[in-house]
Amino acid sequence: MAGAEQFHSFLVDVFGRINKIEERAMAEGLGSALSITEIHIIEKIGAHESARMGEVAKSIGVTLATLTVACDKLVAKGLVRRMRSAEDRRVVNITLTAKGRAAYEYHQAFHDRMIAAMLEDLSPEQAAVLAQSLQKLQAFFRKEEAVIDGQERRPCDP
After folding, report:
1. Distance from CA of residue 31 to its chain's centroid?
2. Most buried pick, 20, 92, 142, 143, via CB within 10 A?
3. What is the sign of the dihedral through the CA atoms of 89, 86, 74 and 49?
4. Does residue 80 surpass a pLDDT of 90?
5. Residue 29: its pLDDT value, please?
6. What is the CA radius of gyration of the chain?
7. DSSP per residue over the chain, as a string?
8. How far apart are CA 146 and CA 144, in angstroms?
9. Which residue has the higher pLDDT, 10 or 1?
10. What's residue 81's pLDDT?
């Protein structure tokens, strides 16, 4: 099926380009480089006023130790602040600084431009088909993630 090869090539290319462009755009906008993991940490924190370290680690699929190392770098760059919970001293919350909030907004603007460019010439029907296709892709990723996490098995697995 020629279409399958085209989709494969497209997805590999698009995912790689998005990551590369996000890193470059953030470096340009901030004046300092950020890794994709750091960008996604900022994105997860920015969606909330404050977030627990454990919740952010789980939501981006990294260990708490990995998140701690990444947050050390983000704190050093002046983008993130850590605070222990007053109610439970074991809990560490992270928030964005003003510079971190600016990075979050810059990243969101990049995503807004990307989505607008993708949808600008599509009819409502075409946009609906695209949305359905992306939902199927998202469902596939979630299922694969569940298999990797040991929560599900593939039908062909013993």
Report:
1. 21
2. 92
3. positive
4. yes
5. 67
6. 19
7. -HHHHHHHHHHHHHHHHHHHHHHHHHHHHHSS---HHHHHHHHHHHTSSSEEHHHHHHHHT--HHHHHHHHHHHHHTTSEEEEE-SS-TT-EEEEE-HHHHHHHHHHHHHHHHHHHHHHTT--HHHHHHHHHHHHHHHHHHHHHHHHHTTS---TT--
8. 5
9. 10
10. 95
User: The tokens of 119 are what?
Assistant: 């949808």
Q: Quote the tokens at residue 133.
A: 């296709």
> What is d(CA 13, CA 18) in angstroms, rounded to the nearest whole number?
9
State yes or no: pLDDT of 14 exceeds 90.
no
Contact 66, 57 (CB under 8 A): yes
pLDDT, tens digit, 9 for 90 and up, residues 27-79: 776 666 788 888 888 988 998 878 888 888 888 888 889 989 999 999 999 99
